[in-house]
TrEMBL record:
PROSITE patterns: ABC_TRANSPORTER_2 (PS50893). Keywords: ATP-binding, Cell membrane, Membrane, Nucleotide-binding, Transport. InterPro entries: AAA+_ATPase, ABC_transporter-like_ATP-bd, AztA-like, Metal_Ion_Import_ABC, P-loop_NTPase. Gene3D superfamilies: P-loop containing nucleotide triphosphate hydrolases (3.40.50.300). It comes from the Bacteria. The lineage of its organism: Bacteria, Pseudomonadati, Pseudomonadota, Betaproteobacteria, Burkholderiales. This is Zinc ABC transporter ATP-binding protein AztA. Belongs to the ABC transporter superfamily. It holds the Pfam family ABC_tran. Residues 19-246 form the ABC transporter domain. One of its GO terms (molecular function) is ATP binding. The keyword Cytoplasm does not apply.
Length: 281
């Protein structure tokens, strides 16, 4: 697979960071999924986000994409004019939506077409070039609901191609995809990297990360390590991430951030929690 050659205009981005996290914390009903994460994704970097189940990897990507509310004491700074594209996990896609492959890819151009605008011949040519790049020529009129997992993922990569983004966020992009399709999609990812785009991908396969991703962020709700892949994926760091995951209390009633939630100090919250926790006879 080969992407059409339209490189991003990186001159629009200021500084070395594409996106910066400052003390990022995200909670669902006050249970922290991400806790005090700080650091930055350098412009043009290719980073794998890795960690145990429930480590907050998808939550991080959704935060970067601006799809979840972050706690007020932390924030995300994006380079001015940064164009983002986000590929959600398979399980979050509604395959029953009546849409054919061409229209699904065309949706990547909606900032230009508008919600009800019509596509120009140039836009349709761009869509067709993207479909050709992922090896899906001839599938233009197929309903997306009839595609195999690998074909659907190639369609969604074609949509990323036309989006022409500076920052590309991929949540488990090779899940339920065979090794040949994975190799083709990895080629596209590496091509985006060569073009100077910033790519962040949630992955589970350590060997794949070591081979193809120069940077890694190891998460276990907190940042365990973030930097060059070989320095991050050490036995000690992986063990620490596993130990943190084993210690998670999914039933914990409160999230005490910096020892204070909604104006209450940690001791008060702890006392309240103990008061509401049933004691065993
Ligand atoms: N919408 C939600 N409402 C409530 N809790 C949520 C929601 N989304 C995620 N969580 C919880 O937040 C924590 C982190 O979830 P997240 O999906 O970000 O982890 P992950 O690292 O991507 O996991 P996995 O590897 O299993 O995909 C988990 O405990 C999860 O149950």
């Amino acid at each position: 697979m080969r992407a059409p050659d339209y490189a991003p205009d990186n001159t629009r981005l200021a500084g070395a960071a594409a996106i910066e996290l400052h003390n990022l914390t995200v909670s669902y009903r006050r249970h922290p999924a991400l806790h005090h994460v700080s650091g930055h994704f350098a412009r043009g970097s290719l980073t794998a986000v890795i960690g145990p189940n429930g480590a907050g990897k998808s939550t991080l990507l959704k935060s970067l994409a601006g799809l979840v509310k972050t706690e007020p004491h932390g924030h995300i700074t994006r380079a001015p004019g940064l164009r983002m594209a986000y590929l959600p996990q398979h399980s979050e896609l509604d395959r029953s939506f009546p849409l054919n492959v061409r229209d699904c890819v065309l949706m990547g151009l909606w900032p230009q077409t508008g919600a009800f605008g019509s596509a120009t011949p140039a836009m349709l040519a761009r869509v067709d070039a993207a479909l050709e790049a992922v090896g899906l020529q001839g599938f233009e009129r197929r309903p997306v609901g009839t595609l195999s997992s690998g074909q659907l993922q190639r369609t969604l990569f074609a949509r990323l191609l036309v989006q022409d983004a500076d920052l590309i966020l991929l949540d488990e992009p090779f899940n339920a995809v065979d090794s040949k399709t994975t190799a083709g999609l990895l080629t596209l990812v590496k091509q985006w990297h060569r073009q100077g785009r910033t790519v962040v991908a949630v992955l589970h396969d350590d060997a794949q990360v070591r081979e193809h991703f120069p940077q890694t962020l190891l998460l276990a709700r907190e940042c365990i390590a973030w930097g060059a892949t070989a320095e991050v994926l050490t036995d000690a760091n992986l063990q620490r991430a596993r130990a943190m995951a084993e210690a998670w209390d999914e039933t914990a009633a409160i999230c005490a951030i910096d020892g204070e939630v909604n104006g209450l100090d940690f001791d008060t919250l702890l006392a309240r929690r103990l008061a509401t926790t049933p004691t065993t006879p």
